[in-house]
Structure formats: C-alpha cells, structure tokens
Amino acid sequence: MNHTTTQPLFRRAGLAIGLSAALLLAACGSNVKLDEVPVSDRSGTAAGAGAGGQGSGVDPRGVAGVQVPGAGGAQPQQLQRIVYFEYDSFEVKPEFASALEANAKYLNANRNARVGLEGHTDERGGREYNLALGQKRAEAVRRSLSLLGVADSQMEAVSFGEEKPAQTGLDEAAFSKNRRVEITYR
Fold it and tell me: What value does the mean pLDDT of the chain take?
C-alpha cells in the first residue's frame, strides 16, 4: 500500500470509531424526558393548552373548592402526605389521587397554610440527574395540587435527590420507599 491509498482508510476508520462512540453514549442515556410533567387535566381541555401555554387555560380564581368525601375536617397530620413513584419516572400514579385531593381540600380551606413539596430519588443515577428527577417529581405533585385549586403561593417544590433516603438498603424495597415526594406543612 502506498501513502495515498492508506490515508482515506485511516479517515474512514476514524469516522467509524467516532460514530461507534456516539452510538454507545446515546444508548447509555435515559429515556426519561425531564422537561415534560405528565399530569391529568380533569377540566376537559388538553393540559398545556390555553393562554400562553400556562396549564389548562382555566382561570384558577374561578375554580370551586374540592369536595372530598371522608376528608372532613382532617388536619395535616391526619392526611397521607407521601406520593411514591416508579423507577426513573415522575408521573403521579392514579392511586395517589385521593391523597392529593384531601391535601388540596385542606389547603383550599386554609389559604394561609403552606407546604413544601420535597422530591426524592433512590441512589441509582448520578447526583445531578437525581436532583433534576427529584425536582420534576415535586413539580408534578405541585401541578396536580394546582389543578385542584391550590394557589401557587402556598406551595414550594424542592429536590433533595438521593440525599435524604427514607430507608437504607440496596434492594428494591428500600429503593421504592426512597422514590417519593413528601408534602410537609409549615
């Protein structure tokens, strides 16, 4: 082989190695889209539609309070205040709808009450990723409560990522208890 025929071969080999590395890195990425919060909008309009893309287009000042059977005059300490999530997800599961409705009823009846929505993850994943995922979980719960009429000024969404585990351990039982949002009354 002479010098003029080997140079294109080296370029092709370099290109192939570069493409292989890019494909390998892309395959290692997560499929969780951290820029979209899946929320059920029960108003009958599509979530995200309306004025300037700000929610459902429903004016929150015109939303009536939520009537939750069985919530009665419950105090915060009597309410379920933890929402659990699936692995690598920030979608609020339907099984937590009644807990969120009960908290919303209390907050709507007590407009001076404030809550912190503390997002947590299990220890799998990098620190930055877990902080972002914890924030998305907290924001998903905030958005759900907002759709139930709770004022944004009553809620603060924060993330602790993997920093404050509810349970230690390296098994699925421990991991599932750590993937959560805690509603803390202030």
Answer: 78
